[in-house]
Design a protein that fits this description.
The chain has a 9-stranded mixed beta sheet, sandwiched between helices. Strands 13-14-12-15-18-17-16 form a 7-stranded mixed beta sheet. It is 30% helix and 27% strand. It is globular, with a radius of gyration of 25 Å. The chain contains 13 helices and 18 strands. α2 packs across α3. It starts with a helix and ends with a strand.
Length: 397
């Protein structure tokens, strides 16, 4: 039995009522083992229907299909990418899954072709459109077909093409561009002939060395400080970073710079400075040196992502950084550090580390203190010296 047929059945409707009563909280729903297979799908439908005017899942972006769990694109990221399109565009969405990107472009598009080799994905996407945007359902044509074959036969170029190739061919988190289905190099050969404007969505774990040789620019999209997507696209003039925080979008489109000044001062000069840690997405995209130059920062070492500044970044720049005010700095000697903490009566502290040979757990055991409390100590390397920085977190309002 497929998911939509189950939803329409008497049993499915009864379980869906339980989902409504539980307000989509999957942990509060009691069901049989068989029903549990369908529960993620029903919770997804609940999220689609119950989130007001947006009508897109926000808290729950995954459902279960015959192949297993199907991950949907983050709603806010999909909506931002959809906003890049001009009204009245003729659009092709390849390997569109359950239809998240499709749902975010429907209102502005003149027509949309959806191509997916998986008939079940096309059926779910079509069902979502008909349930949520029935007034736009006539714009969409669904094709259960190999995308490479479809692209080969495009007679009239599209205004815009978005492809989210399948990533189930790889056995590890680092998925080579050749392991996608369709393979990214094959897509790159056909897309420019089918449209001047195109995007290929890739996993954030794709090997960076493989991306440098691709024709097209890279768009790194982060949310909550982590890298969500890497997009290869013809839409940009250079590499860019985008941070999507619900309705707020922050763009960092400075040209990439290799090389940043390194702090060569004494340990005693650190008091009063600010310690900056670029987000994981910034580090993954190789933008640390660029960011350092933009905010006027120095690196603690040549090959590091830790930055030092004399003043705080702007609120907009703070999107890309975790910021700390340095209260004091000490050379790292085991006896001296233990003695210092004991003299100050510190029995609990938040211990962090970067570019340091010991793990936080080892440091806590060495100092005979517990993790937690209000004190924050950051262990790192300054030049060639191991140091302990006492810091306080800077929160931008």
């Amino acid at each position: 039995m497929d998911w939509i047929a189950y939803y329409s059945s008497k049993e499915g409707q009864a379980l869906y009522q339980d989902v409504i009563l539980a307000k989509g909280n999957i942990l509060k729903i009691t069901c049989t083992p068989k029903e549990r297979l369908f529960l993620p799908f029903l919770v997804t439908l609940y999220q689609l229907r119950e989130h007001g005017t947006d009508k897109i899942p926000m808290a729950h972006d995954m459902l279960m299909t015959r192949r297993g769990y199907e991950q949907a694109t983050d709603y806010w990221i999909a909506r931002w990418k959809g906003s890049l399109l001009h009204s009245g565009s003729r659009i092709l969405i390849g390997c569109g899954g359950i239809g998240m990107e499709l749902l975010t472009v429907l209102e502005s598009a003149a027509s949309v072709d959806v191509v997916d080799l998986d008939a079940e994905m096309c059926a779910i996407a079509q069902y979502n459109v008909e349930q949520l945007f029935p007034e736009h359902a006539h714009k969409v044509t669904y094709h259960t077909q190999d995308l490479l074959e479809f692209l080969t036969n495009v007679a009239v170029p599209y205004d815009y093409i978005l492809v989210d190739p399948d990533r189930r061919e790889g056995d590890s988190r680092r998925i080579s561009i050749d392991q996608y289905s369709p393979a990214v190099p094959q897509l790159m050969e056909l897309l420019p002939k089918a449209s001047k404007q195109w995007m290929i969505k890739l996993s954030p774990m794709v090997p960076m060395e493989e991306l440098h040789g691709l024709e097209g620019n890279l768009l790194f999209i982060e949310g909550d400080g982590s890298l969500k997507e890497i997009v290869v696209t013809s839409l940009l003039q250079q590499w860019s970073m985008v941070s999507v925080v619900e309705k707020n979008v922050y763009i960092f489109d400075r040209p990439r710079v290799i090389g940043a000044p390194v702090f060569l001062g004494a340990l005693s000069e650190l008091g009063g400075k600010y310690l900056m840690i670029p987000t994981a997405a910034m580090r993954r995209a190789g933008y640390v040196d660029t960011l350092a130059n933009v905010i006027g920062a120095q690196k603690t070492q040549y090959a590091t992502s830790l930055l030092l500044t004399d003043q705080l970044p702007t609120k907009e720049q703070s999107i890309w950084l975790e910021s700390y005010h340095i209260l004091d700095a000490h050379p790292f000697h085991k006896k001296n550090i233990k003695s210092l903490l004991k003299q100050r009566g510190i029995s609990k502290a938040v211990v962090k580390k970067r570019d340091f040979p010991m793990e936080p757990e080892e440091i806590l055991r060495m100092c005979k203190i517990k993790q937690g409390g209000t004190h924050i100590f950051f262990f790192t390397t300054l030049g060639e010296d191991l140091v302990m920085l006492e810091v306080e977190r800077v929160i931008f309002q």
